[in-house]
Design a protein that fits this description.
This protein is 32% helix and 19% strand. The protein is an alpha/beta fold. Helix 3 packs across helix 8.
């Protein structure tokens, strides 16, 4: 919220005041900001404050077999959230990825984030990553090459990010089966399957998983049948040409199906 006696309101501020000519004059000078008058806007203000106290959704996106398609799926979901104006952060938690997302110059990378998580000082990380209206990223600084990611530290970092960002998308690479725990402390897991050879030998035993099939040039599995075998919710399929960026079909699937369901508190494939 913002008071008229202060300098110009910051980005994202809501103009709040008693109903009257002065309040409407301030609103006219700052047309890009929401304007709420009291007492008529009390219900709207209460709902907004309540929403701001909720923690963001953490979703882990991984692949069955390979992980290239799952990285594009994570990007597609981030683009969908960005288009809706949601505070979103994209986290690269796959140190073995060929297509590594690098940290921006001057922005902390994973090694710094993990150290802060280990000593309990990770709370300031979201502010360092936040960017105006764009997708924030937690990537890899030059020279960072850990052999593994300690699960407790990854979960601590993602939990801290969820205090600021409405959606925390964690690219975890190839999923390990049986999937007995949720990667990165995520509330939801989106598993991306490619060709038939990616069928895992075990069902899900301790995580709520949604399954999506990303169709390439090879033969794709029967998505609903594979989801049933895994005990996962079916999250649709899309054509997925290889490359660093998601194609139109994958972006459309993320925008029309995955994001609305996540924002409703369900998994990407939950009905």
């Amino acid at each position: 919220m913002w008071a008229a006696e202060e300098p110009d309101p910051p980005a994202g501020a809501v103009l709040l005041g008693a109903d009257g000519p002065a309040a409407w004059a301030v609103a006219a000078r700052h047309p890009d900001h929401p304007h709420v008058t009291l007492p008529s806007g009390a219900a709207w203000l209460g709902a907004r404050l309540s929403a701001r106290t909720r923690r963001g959704v953490v979703v882990a996106v991984g692949g069955l077999g390979g992980a290239g398609g799952s990285q594009r799926a994570a990007l597609a979901l981030a683009y969908a959230a960005e288009a809706e104006g949601l505070p979103v952060v994209l986290v690269d938690a796959d140190p073995g990825s060929v297509q590594r997302w690098e940290a921006e110059p001057g922005v902390p990378g994973w090694e710094s984030a993990r150290r802060w998580a280990a000593d309990g000082s990770v709370a300031g990380l979201p502010e360092l990553l936040a960017s105006d209206g764009a997708i924030a990223r937690l990537g890899w600084a030059p020279g960072e090459d850990p052999d593994r990611m300690p699960p407790a530290e990854v979960a601590a970092v993602c939990g801290a990010l969820a205090s600021t960002f409405e959606l925390v998308i964690v690219a975890v690479g190839a999923l390990e089966w049986p999937l007995a725990a949720v990667p990165a402390g995520a509330a939801h897991v989106l598993a991306c399957a490619g060709e038939d050879g990616a069928w895992p030998p075990h069902r899900c035993t301790g995580a709520t998983v949604s399954l999506s099939v990303l169709r390439g040039r090879g033969r794709s599995p029967d998505g609903p049948a594979l989801a049933g075998w895994l005990g996962a919710a079916w999250a649709g399929s899309a054509a997925d040409p290889s490359g660093p960026e998601p194609g139109r079909a994958l972006r459309r699937l993320a925008r029309r199906l995955w994001l609305p369901r996540l924002l409703a508190g369900a998994g990407p494939g939950a009905p």
